Amino acid sequence: MDNYSSFIRQFRPELSPKTLSQYSKQLRYLSDGYGLDFNPLQLTLDIIDIAIEDLSVKHITLVGLPYEKNIRLAVFRNLINIFSDHITPKDYQILDSLILEAKITK
Fold first, then answer.
1. 15, 33, 47, 66: which could join 19 in a potential S-S bond, CB 3.0 to 4.6 Å?
2. CA dihedral 22, 79, 53, 28 (to 10 degrees)
3. pLDDT of residue 64
4. Rounded to an integer, what distance in angstroms lies between the CA atom of residue 66 and that of residue 19?
5. N- to C-terminal Cα distance for the chain?
6. Each residue of 26-41: pLDDT tens digit?
């Protein structure tokens, strides 16, 4: 089990092995896309900064990577839950709305 799988398993032990594998793969894509070695907190804060500034979560799709929007949005939603202590309630509400909007639009 790699760092990404272990990290996700720590906070979401109920996930099936298949879902855990998908989540860790998407987390790895995001980390690579942002040029970060394993650092889920920094990755989350970077994504949040861009999402709040642009009022969009489209940047988490990362052009050139396999596009699995709903899985990547689920990973991001889990990250903001995990690091909720670092997010203001207002930003948390905005991020939830942006994720929901991204899930229902093409």
1. 15
2. -40
3. 64
4. 16
5. 33
6. 899 889 888 999 999 9
> Two tokens at 69?
């929007």
68: left (phi over 0), alpha (psi -120 to 50) or beta: beta
3-class SS of residue 51: helix
pLDDT interval class at 63 (50, 70, 90): low
* CA 100/CA 43 separation, integer angstroms: 20
Contact 79, 40 (CB under 8 A): yes
Residue type, 25: K
Are the C-beta atoms of residues 80 and 44 closer than 8 Å to each other? yes
Amino acid identity for residue 66 in this structure: P
